[in-house]
Amino acid sequence: MHAWPASEVPALPGKGRDLRIHDTATGGLVTLDPGPVARIYVCGITPYDATHMGHAATYNAFDLVQRVWLDTKRQVHYVQNVTDVDDPLLERANRDGKDWVELAEGETALFREDMTALRLLPPKHYIGAVEAIPGIVPLVERLRDMGAAYELEGDIYFSVESDAHFGEVSGLDTAAMKLLSAERGGDPERVGKKNPLDPMLWMAARDGEPSWDGGSLGRGRPGWHIECVAIALDHLGMGFDVQGGGSDLAFPHHEMGASHAQALTGEYPFAKAYVHAGMVGLDGAKMSKSKGNLVFVSQLRRDGVDPAAIRLALLAHHYRADWEWTDAVLAEAVERLGRWRAAVSRPDGPSAEALVEEIREALANDLDAPAALAAVDRWAARQGADGGADEGAPGVVSRAVDALLGVAL
């Protein structure tokens, strides 16, 4: 599966700072110190509907991670998946009378268009669940053969008790885990499971649903968590730098994925940091496909909204915060974009060297994009008030905003 085209990232003078970021597993800030190549895995979409602002906010956050790393002169090895076969996708296809493959391909194509418009840097490897099945089957067989998985009426389940570190990613107690498991695709009430929290690794073929040859597992399709584990291990290996996604993925998805990988390899940890973006709401509730309270990136673009303004609206909120999308949020972003473009359109202006360092420091401090935006606001206000004699300053600001914030002025 192909990703989307990359926008050019301008090179800036000097060198950025190492990233301090909030790690869900430890509950505090950690300073990431990757080698020459930083490794990041971000969980992708289930393509049964268009990209909404919640998706955009999450992927924007991890685009900032990449930009901070690139500014430290590192290479970035970024991997993202597409869950192109799963219950929600099949249910939507049945509801709308569409072929599930056609639905997945169409929505994935629209996602690529949205990511290109927002100038989010693409993954090096963009892998669909279906194409990953040949690599998933041997992992499930290995877990079963080593006693970390078991069969129940043809389905294969992972035993959470096989990983001594289970629970360390989310830090939740058993009661909270059971509740979230039921809400987020698990089946804690199924009779016969060794532990109610045990997640499915391989679902035996069901009538009327797609299935694949699973070797000794029989025909079926993979569970949600093992999909990402297989892709991450194949392309990044154990101990990569950041596992990312929305805060609703901390449990069960990232918790289970870590345990799968740690049981398979006997190594710890799966990822050095687990980083989670907040939820975007609309009309008082989390924006979600199940609720239907969605603002789509593609619709805003069709309505003539500049993608740079959409991106500024996202950047105005700290990535870990839960926030509400409103018309006022977008209006403020459109106004800010206009002020910034007017400021950099002048032939000279106040010196920009300190501004570049302010942006760098803000982003290195747990991706504090609102502080970075405020710094640019102050420079733009000075440009309007007293100008300046630095002929190169507007160009420096334009390149810095592009390179570090992904906004083209």
TrEMBL record:
UniProt GO BP: cysteinyl-tRNA aminoacylation; mycothiol biosynthetic process
Keyword Nucleotide-binding: yes
Motif placement: 'ERGGDP' region: 183-188
InterPro entries: Cys-tRNA/MSH_ligase, Mycothiol_ligase_MshC, Rossmann-like_a/b/a_fold, tRNA-synt_1_cat_dom
Motif ('HIGH' region): 45-55
Binding site residues for L-cysteinyl-5'-AMP: C43, G44, I45, T46, T58, N81, V82, T83, W224, G246, S247, D248, V280
Amino acids binding Zn(2+): C43, C228, H253
CDD domains per the UniProt record, alphabetical: CysRS_core
Example GO molecular function: zinc ion binding
Chain positions of motif 'KMSKS' region: 286-290
Domain tRNA synthetases class I catalytic: 39-334
Entry keyword set: ATP-binding, Ligase, Metal-binding, Nucleotide-binding, Zinc
Catalytic reaction equation(s): 1D-myo-inositol 2-amino-2-deoxy-alpha-D-glucopyranoside + L-cysteine + ATP = 1D-myo-inositol 2-(L-cysteinylamino)-2-deoxy-alpha-D-glucopyranoside + AMP + diphosphate + H(+)
Function: Catalyzes the ATP-dependent condensation of GlcN-Ins and L-cysteine to form L-Cys-GlcN-Ins.
PANTHER family assigned to the protein according to its UniProt record, in alphabetical order: CYSTEINE--TRNA LIGASE, CYTOPLASMIC (PTHR10890:SF3), CYSTEINYL-TRNA SYNTHETASE (PTHR10890)
Complex formation: Monomer.
Protein name: L-cysteine:1D-myo-inositol 2-amino-2-deoxy-alpha-D-glucopyranoside ligase
Organism: Streptomyces venezuelae
Organism phylogeny: Bacteria, Bacillati, Actinomycetota, Actinomycetes, Kitasatosporales
Protein's gene: mshC
